[in-house]
Amino acid sequence: MIPSALLFVVAGLLVWSVLRAAPTAPPPSVEPRAITPRGDLAEDERATIELFQATAPSVVHITTIGRGILHFNVMELPKGTGSGFVWDTAGHIVTNFHVIENARHAQVTFGNGDTFDAELVGVAPDKDIAVLRVDADPSILKPLPVGTSSDLVVGQKVFAIGNPFGFDQTLTTGVISGLGREIRSRSGRPIQDVIQTDAAINPGNSGGPLLDSAGRLIGITTAIYSPSGASAGIGFAVPVDIVNRIVPQLIRDGRVTKPGLGIHIAQDAYARRHGIEGVLVLSVPEDSAAAAAGLRGIGRAPDGRYVLGDVIVEADGKPVRETADLYRVLDRHEVGDTIELVVRRNGGDTARLKVTLQALN
Questions:
Q1: Residues noted as catalytic
Q2: For the chain, does the N or the C end have fewer beta carbons within 10 angstroms?
Q3: How far is CA 98 from CA 133, 172, 192, 282, 343, in A?
Q4: Considering the entire predicted model, what is its pTM?
Q5: What is the average per-residue pLDDT within 284-308?
């Protein structure tokens, strides 16, 4: 009888000899795979590429310099970056006011790498708009075509070009998510009819153009709503109809002439602390439009007591509960227009006054 251990050895040898005699499989292929042709680009892709190629040369990168103090030595420190775009062949560059706010110096860099020192032409903090000027060769000054924001509709495509986080010439796409929004400017006054978009807007995009599918300027990207400071799909742009009204004034005069009443008013917080709803008039200069209309500020009664000034509670038929409500009405008018105010006087009586708006610098 053959021992079992010997049987295992013999069986193992037989298996090994069979496997050894079997043909060896060829090694797997290690060559690069063949490239599959993609065919033509989709029509909307071609349209986006053409739009970017046509408009990107008009978009610039703005770098600002502030002043810092280190060991009692004054030194220049980078303050921030933003975007802007060419307005005309005279070298005017449009951006946001907050991009260049408090800056001592600004430089403008074009897509081809050319960099120029910028001169400040004028600012409109109430609308977050600023105009710079560079002494550049006209061959690189390619103004964007200007559209209108009056006929925009929710859902239409939009394109934003800028320099988010310093990455030059970045294109993002999206749609108009909302119209008629309102944001606060640096001065605290409301900016009305703002465009809301889901096109990614990040720090550094500020001041860049928002374009429609025809490559026309329809707004200036100005703000985002985001707890983290990065894009969360809610961005805002100042509408081009405001831009097209403000920029020519800044180029011509260096400032914007605003319509106003010519009065001094109390801060909302002060009015609320005293239980006042509306805009409290503190004083009315004698040569103002408000004085001509009979508006009254705080005064003294014959017995020496202070008498509360008029409280504006309505303007052009719209209720006024705070200063922003009054500004909304004024922003829709021009110098020389007449508006009707309803004021509460002496704590109870109301009066209707017609005021012809004057120019405010």
A1: 98, 128, 206
A2: N
A3: 17, 22, 17, 30, 35
A4: 0.77
A5: 86
